[in-house]
Write a structure and sequence with these properties.
heterotrimer, A alpha/beta (about 675), B mainly alpha (about 325), C mainly alpha (about 280), A: about 675 residues, alpha/beta, eight-stranded mixed sheet, 22 helices, B: about 325 residues, mainly alpha, MetI-like fold, about 0% strand
């Protein structure tokens, strides 16, 4: 018997003619003990499905049927639906930072479900809550139960939310992007936990995500959602290895894959459809490279060898290759490292001060003795030395708090380093005069992470780019400025009519292109790219990555390319540096970093970035224990989390740099051979 | 937490010190000379000079300030120039009268403001919400002095069921005391109840829209628990700050209301002192009022720290 | 592109909400009266008549006459200008001083910010009316001094608001982009931050006008603002106080006029906020 069966679920907001169809006739089944992944980009309606199952959206917006263990839910009164929530069906939301009540103790927040649904006494419930915390791998459940949410890290909070969802033994667990807000090493822990518990308790799991790599790790079956419609559904192996629907193919082609550095990404062109005005035919028609006249007919979800698919042309189109619209450029021309460096960081150190919680008197304004909190300085970056050659791309990968963005800003002197030197084109810029700094900033620019925040909402696209150009070329007249701005807009692949548009009229990917055009306006040699694609959907991310590649080879640009995603980094970089807690743990040519031997931390990152269409068993999953919030003052930065820690030397002595023949540098107490051996053993064991 | 308390206490002391300098400094440049006020209209310049010398008015500013502040901290505000009584006695009498007015008003504001705000938020966009919204609109638009006069017109002059002013002792006859205080309290609280309920409604709606409330609903908790256990405690945190700021408005309102209802409190005393240029009385009343206001804000800050675990258990201020 | 033009249309319709319409309609009327009050009124505001003392409303005197036989209707019309001038003047003053201070504090931070904010703390630690009374007690009260006093009361909240907006905007990446191309501080403040900050400041400012009008009138009521024979509304009510039993209309006319003005400005401010940011308006901050 199916556990959950969704039939013809449609969710629409507003009334015609401006009705927004968030979901359109979706059918999904989940069996007990089965994990079904629901995949889609933003706007696909994947979270709406979860909210409809939970009865957390207005009833009048929902039509269709939801059967839970044979019982039809949509016709039940709200009070009956409430009793199912948390008891039989539980959900874990995306953001662990805002999903817990800030003023209630953790233990109480878990126990609430028990007292409500199972009628337990407070004492019983608290005891059971502590057990639940233990079950999700929290070492010290009593302390955590007594804590308030702000005292816990993101990973811990997500464990708490999972414990609270599981505490009443539900039969169905819905996870709505549970790892998106977490770092990759923490993500690996949470996925492990979910999988282990789901298997042990035999619960059905609906796992909502945009990340196909995560799907590959966790799912039995996959449902692909596009613009509120189910376009493909089948077993994980079939859908990920052998996708049939053009949208699924496009999605998989958009993902950068570790180790496939030569291949160009094949993104999906065009824009996401308007959900208030959906076409009668195939929803994907407008963006599909294989479309033809018959696609404008209404499409049916049809069965085909154990899967269902909403495309009449899937089989004939399968033999056609996905067209590569932009020209192909080779990126194999890795620059030799003996060339003179364009920019060089020498022993850059950055310390911030933070409160110790102790109070002292401090004289303010010369005479007023005021209480002040004693400060201590925290090292954010420790003696970082890196260099980037002309036309070279250095990828900097690290988790949140590793200091990667700070490093990028120090390179541009937007932040001053506490110690160390930045040398650009042979000149030191740490103590440059205003005039020199102006010249330097024409040649070194930055592209930001958040496409919305990076553009002034009250300025037109043309105005933003013109200003940047005018500042770099003060002598240029109006006509020249306008012409150059238009050229730049064209350069980044946007239509010139966007000149007079405001940022809110553009999509995320388009805004990011404007940000790039603005950075190019002063004709720079170096661009610091600070997570420039991580806020974008996968298909858009691919087009922007391709643009970065093209610009680099056309204009001989150097990039410092910062990302938390090793797959993205490996796709674009010539060399890769791995940053952990303000320290470079591994650095070298991209190919060498991706090949063994690895620093134990790099190894974990590589495991997390596994390719979605590779069989999961090819690689043993590496889960690093612990949280990435503790700062160490002595020894190796990775101590305590490292699976290959050898002993007290890791805690007391700074690790030496090990060099290999390929030019790889690893900061580890283990020798290169030892590292290599350990990694070989691991591969054989699996 | 201890750190936070010490920090706030010291900050309040510094602020009070600065205010005392401000008050003293400003009153020094007031028109009208203390010596000639004391000497009377027809005194000769020699007499005025003699008085000035005797009072130390020819000393440098900081000497005079030091003399003043060191007696103020012992509770001695000097002699009233007009009433010829110690200022501290005048102030304490008036203060007690004002305090009963303020306390009754503040309790009503807290109670009704929060109740109305929560009611409106829970019944969002329904009749109750619209009623409360209309009430708050009118409430924040009527000046106290006008509202007070309208109340007097209706209850004292037209219906003749309540006195139009004055005060009675609570111990002698609680009923008469109540009849004297009820109109001033209604006058004082209308605007503030409107203000507090408006802000409580808005922070309550914010809490009800939050992720943690969605999560609480997803756990299948009854709506009552969601509203009162999850949303309300968080929604009330900003209300505490608002209430403390409204003490400032309350004090301002008290000055006006005491004048309107001829209520013998500290506000009317201050206005009297200003009209008559009674310097020591002005200094003392303003300083006492500022002290009360600072203490109210301090209490609010500490209360906020107690209900907000982020402050109670470190991590951020 | 059909979708975006449609959403622009709905945005325009939403912005023309009823509060904004009613509020701005009333405000236009009140502004008209405030400017042309003395031409519109049938009598001069200080024209006394011993025979016509405390007459109830009639066709000759729509709102009756006061204790000196002056026409209350004329006085209320003429008083509009002064009452509103105190409110607007004080708000303008607080914006002129507060906005630049707040912008600089929020963007520059550091010692300057610390100093400004501590000064504001001291000003804020006085109840609003006390600050006004303190200023006015030191010299002969007059209307323009009331403007000054009320303006000073509203400088700290304006600085705080502007500073918090500037602080938030200073973290935006487009500001960092401006710094990365070596823009000057003034350029960033005026061209990048201010255009994004002013909608919020304008909304808050328009709502603060109501508080300023009420506070200004309260000062006049206490004899610390406009002086006789001015027909400022607060002063009119104050002077009508001894006669409320016999001639309630003398106080009612200016009182109701003031309520109407304040409601109109509140409607306008709320409507403006709804037009600029529909989300916050539904919560009705």
């Amino acid at each position: 018997m199916t556990l959950l069966s969704i039939k013809n679920l449609t969710v629409s907001y507003g009334s015609p003619p401006y009705q927004l169809k968030a979901l359109n006739a979706v059918n999904i089944d989940i069996a007990p003990g089965e994990t079904v992944a629901l995949v889609g980009e933003s706007g696909s309606g994947k979270s709406t499905i979860a909210m409809a199952i939970m009865d957390l959206i207005p009833r009048k917006a929902v039509s269709g049927e939801i059967f839970f263990k044979g019982r039809e839910l949509t016709s039940l009164p709200s009070e009956e639906r409430r009793k199912l929530r948390g008891r039989n069906i539980s959900i874990v939301f995306q953001d662990p930072f805002t999903s817990l009540n800030p003023s209630i103790r953790i233990g109480k927040q878990i126990a609430e479900g028990l007292t409500t649904h199972l009628g337990m006494s407070n004492a019983q419930a608290m005891k059971r809550a502590a057990e639940a915390l233990k079950e999700v791998g929290i070492a010290d459940p009593e302390t955590v139960a007594n804590a308030y949410p702000h005292q816990l890290s993101g990973g811990m909070r997500q464990r708490v939310l999972i414990a609270s969802a599981l505490v009443c033994n539900p039969e169905l667990l819905i996870l709505d992007e549970p790892t998106t807000a977490l770092d990759v090493t923490i993500e690996a822990q949470v996925l492990d936990l979910v999988q282990e518990i789901a298997a042990r308790r035999h619960v059905g799991v609906l796992f909502i995500t945009h990340n196909l790599g995560v799907v590959n790790k966790i799912a039995d079956r996959v449902c692909v959602l596009y613009a509120g419609q189910l376009v493909e559904e089948g077993t994980k192996e079939r859908v990920l290895r052998d996708p049939l629907h053009p949208y699924t193919r496009g999605l998989l082609g958009s993902i950068p894959k570790l180790g496939h550095r030569e291949s160009r990404l094949t993104p999906i062109e065009g824009r996401f459809p308007d959900l208030t005005d959906t076409p009668t035919g195939c929803i994907f028609e407008e963006r599909c490279p294989f479309r033809e006249a018959a696609c404008s007919e209404p499409q049916q979800l049809r069965s085909l060898e154990n899967r269902r698919i909403k495309c009449w042309k899937a089989e004939p189109a399968q033999v056609e290759t996905w067209p590569v619209t932009e020209r192909h450029t080779s990126t194999s021309d890795v620059r030799s490292s003996d060339e003179k460096a364009l920019v060089e960081l020498q022993k850059i150190t950055k310390r911030f001060t933070s409160s110790t919680g102790k109070l002292t008197l401090k004289t303010k304004l010369g005479f007023l003795p005021l209480p002040a909190v004693e400060k201590k300085s925290v090292g954010v970056l420790n003696e970082i030395s890196l260099s980037i050659g002309r036309g070279e791309v250095l990828g900097l990968v690290g988790e949140s708090g590793s200091g990667k963005s700070t490093l990028g800003r120090i390179m541009l002197k937007l932040i001053d380093a506490s110690d160390g030197r930045v040398v650009f084109d042979g000149k030191e810029i740490s103590d440059a005069s205003d005039g020199e700094l102006k010249e330097f900033r024409k040649r070194a620019q930055i592209v930001f992470q958040n496409p919305t925040s990076s553009l002034n909402p009250r300025r037109t696209i043309g105005d933003a780019i013109s200003r940047a150009f005018k500042l770099a070329n003060p002598q240029a007249d109006r006509k020249t400025v306008r012409k150059s701005a238009e050229e730049l807009i064209d350069r980044v692949g946007l239509p010139i009519r966007y000149f007079d548009r405001y940022p809110h009229q553009l999509s995320g990917g388009e805004k990011q292109r404007v940000g790039i055009a603005r950075a190019l306006a002063s004709n720079p040699d170096l661009i610091v790219c600070d997570e420039p694609v991580s806020a974008l959907d996968v298909s858009v991310q691919a087009t922007v990555l391709n643009l970065f590649k093209d610009l680099r080879s056309d204009m001989n640009l150097s990039y410092l390319f910062i990302s938390h995603d090793l797959a993205v980094i490996s796709h674009i970089s010539d060399r890769i540096a791995v940053l952990y807690m303000g320290t470079i743990v591994e650095e070298g040519p991209a190919a060498a970093v991706l090949d063994a031997p690895h620093h134990p931390y790099t190894e974990a990152l590589l495991s997390a970035a596994a390719v979605p269409d590779e069989a999961e068993t090819d690689k043993k999953r590496i889960v690093v224990k612990g949280d990435n919030i503790r700062r160490v003052t002595h020894g190796c930065v990775f101590q305590g989390r490292c699976r290959r820690q050898i002993g007290s030397i890791c805690e007391t002595t700074k690790p030496p740099i090990r060099e290999t023949d390929q030019g790889l540098r690893i900061a580890c107490h283990l020798s290169v051979d030892d590292l290599l051996m350990g990694q070989k053993q691991l591969a054989e064991n699996s | 937490m201890a750190l936070y308390v010490i920090n706030r206490l010291l900050a309040v002391m510094v602020v009070l010190l600065v205010i005392s300098m401000l008050v003293f400094g400003v009153t020094q440049i007031m028109p009208g000379d203390v010596a000639s006020t004391i000497a009377g209209q027809f005194a000769s310049p020699e007499v005025v000079d003699a008085i000035r010398e005797k009072l130390g008015l020819n000393d440098p500013f900081y000497v005079q300030y030091w003399r003043w502040i060191s007696s103020v901290v012992t509770g001695d505000f000097g002699q009233s120039l007009i009433m010829e009584r110690p200022v501290s006695a005048l102030i304490s009498e008036a203060f007690m009268a004002s305090a009963s007015l303020a306390i009754v008003s503040f309790i009503s504001v807290t109670l009704f403001g929060i109740l109305l705000g929560v009611w409106a938020a829970v019944r969002r966009d329904k009749l109750a919400d619209n009623l409360v919204s209309t009430f708050t609109y009118v409430g924040i638009s009527i000046p106290e002095f006008f509202w007070g006069i309208v109340l007097i017109m209706f209850f004292a002059n037209y219906l003749q069921i309540l006195p139009s002013g004055g005060v009675a002792s609570i111990s002698a006859s609680p009923g008469v005391w109540l009849s004297h205080i009820i109109l001033p309290v209604i006058t004082l609280t209308l605007t503030l109840i409107a203000h507090v309920s408006r802000l409580t409604r808005s922070s309550m709606l914010e809490a009800l829209d939050s992720q943690y409330v969605r999560n609480a609903r997803a756990k299948g908790l009854p709506e009552r628990t969601v509203i009162f256990r999850h949303a309300l405690p968080n929604a009330l945190m900003p209300t505490i700050t608002v209430l403390a700021l409204d003490v400032g408005w309350l004090i301002g309102g008290i000055v006006v209301v005491e004048v309107v209802f001829s209520y013998p409190g500290i506000g009317r005393l201050l206005m009297f002192a200003i009209e008559r240029h009674d310097l020591p009385l002005i200094q003392a009343s303003i300083l006492v009022i500022a002290l009360i206001y600072c203490l109210a804000n301090l209490v609010a800050d500490l209360l906020y720290a107690v209900v907000n675990p982020k402050i109670r258990y470190g991590n951020g201020e | 592109m059909a979708s975006s033009s449609r959403s622009t249309q709905t945005a325009v319709f939403r912005s023309l909400n009823s509060k904004l319409l009613i509020g701005s309609g009333l405000l236009l009327l009140i502004a008209f009266v405030a400017i042309f009050g003395s031409w519109l009124s049938p009598y001069a505001y200080d024209q006394m008549s011993v025979l016509q003392r405390m007459k109830p409303p009639s066709s000759a005197h729509w709102f009756g006459t006061d204790e000196l036989g002056r026409d209350v209707f004329s006085r209320t019309l003429t008083g509009a200008g002064m009452s509103i001038a105190i409110g607007f003047g004080a708000t303008m003053l607080s914006l002129l001083v507060g906005v630049p201070l707040g912008l600089l504090s929020g963007y520059k931070r550091g010692g300057f910010d610390e100093f400004v904010m501590r000064c504001m703390d001291v000003l804020l630690s006085m109840p609003p009316i006390m600050l006004g009374l303190l200023f006015l007690a030191v010299s002969e009260p007059s209307a323009w001094k009331a403007i000054l006093a009320v303006g000073c009361v509203y400088i700290p909240p304006t600085v705080r608001l502007t500073r918090s907006i500037a602080l938030e905007l200073a973290n935006e990446e487009f500001i960092e982009a401006a710094r990365a191309r070596s823009e000057s501080t003034w350029y960033i403040l005026i061209k990048e931050i201010l255009p994004n900050a002013w909608p919020t400041i304008a909304v808050e400012g328009s709502l603060r006008v109501t508080f300023a009008i009420l506070l200004g009138a309260a000062l006049s009521f206490l004899g610390m603002g406009a002086q006789p024979p001015s027909s400022e509304w607060g002063l009119m009510i104050s002077q009508a106080r001894p006669y409320i039993a016999q001639a309630p209309w003398i106080a009612l006319a200016p009182g109701l006029a003031m309520c109407l003005t304040v409601i109109a400005i509140n409607l306008f401010g709320d409507g403006l906020r709804a037009a600029i940011d529909p989300r916050s308006a539904s919560r009705g901050h």
